[in-house]
Amino acid sequence: MRYLYVVDFDDTLFRTRVFWRRFLFPELKRIGIPYDISEKVYIASTYKMFGYFIQSLFLSVLHEACKEENIKVSISQINKVFKKTVYSKRARRYFYPRAIEFLHRLKENNNPRILLSSGDKKFKSRFFKALGLNVFFPRGSIHITKKPKIEFIKNLRAKGPVILVNDVLKETEDMVSELQKVSPKTRAFFVDYGGHFKRKDVKKPIELIHSLSEIKVL
Ligand SMILES: [Mg+2]
Fold first, then answer.
1. What are the domain boundaries of the chain?
2. Residue 28 and residue 12: Cα distance in Å, rounded?
3. How far does the centroid of ligand 1 lie from the alpha carbon of residue 11, in Å?
């Protein structure tokens, strides 16, 4: 039986952190919004408050912050820049090297697969479509959840073995132990791009990797 792959998006397939700061914020700067305001609003108004990004909230709080600083920019101007940038094909440059190749291999091997991502459904569905992820994940296999991912895992009821691919170790450990209750052959790849972890930090059946090219698709 083929493994079901449950793949995370943010900072596993996609360089999310870098994306906002190196891609969107410089574009906002071109219409007069200083980098530190974009950064402050991004962290305080959406991410810190909800644990994920919310487009409409970000745009309206950013506009308010600009008004306070006497920066003359309209909400529709900000909106336009946001859409033109975030939902453009150029955003695809922020996939990690080997991420698309890995997705191709999953698809070619015909593995059942799920893209599991926490966040705001409205924003992420549109974003994923713009990034071309629908090509790799058949209808119904993209799950965007506002709750901790473990809640989704608890209800997964996988019929066969599962392989998780994720960039947060503790979360991966919790998901693995939950999955092992129904699917003892569950395995996981913990992607540590920054090289912060050592082999001894990561226990079986989780494997420490530094690139998605290290995954041999089973
Ligand atoms: Mg992640």
1. 4-15+94-214, 16-91
2. 26
3. 5
